[in-house]
Design goal:
The chain has about 130 residues and is mostly helical. It is built from five helices and no strands.
């Protein structure tokens, strides 16, 4: 069964996109936190994203934050078998850990998210413009 309530769904999508009505300033939807709250072990992600099958536990919510050794062990190559993130929001960092050995924290990972080096100078307009030769 598919839940389809036009008003509720459109309102939630707008709210999640940050353009809905909210009394709090600068509210953003935190995908990492939501993933950890509702899919703490990452089973849903692994079901629908087979490229991340080898990543265990909550680490699957932020594969770009794993060490190269952990990614290699999981059979993931960022930029080849799984894309680099387009954006890493600063708000995500508190949900991403830098634990030794890559062991998952029960409530997610904590520590700074990294921005892909090749994209540091590009604004968000780059990804939505038609011209890609910049």
């Amino acid at each position: 069964k598919v839940d389809y309530d036009v008003c509720s769904n459109y309102g939630n999508w707008l709210y999640s996109a940050g353009i809905g009505n909210d009394p709090r300033d600068n509210r953003k939807f935190n995908m990492i936190k939501q993933g950890l709250d509702y899919d703490g072990n990452g089973d849903y992600i692994r079901l629908w994203v087979p490229e991340l099958q080898g990543i265990k536990g909550a680490d699957v919510h932020s594969p770009w934050a794993l060490s190269s050794a952990a990614l290699s062990q999981a059979g993931v190559t960022l930029g080849e078998t799984y894309p680099e993130p387009v954006v890493t929001a600063p708000e995500w960092s508190r949900h991403i850990s830098q634990r030794p050995g890559g062991s998952p924290h029960p409530r997610g990972r904590r520590g700074p998210a990294r921005t892909p080096a090749q994209h540091k100078d590009r604004g968000i307009d780059f990804y939505f413009s038609r011209k890609k030769d910049v």
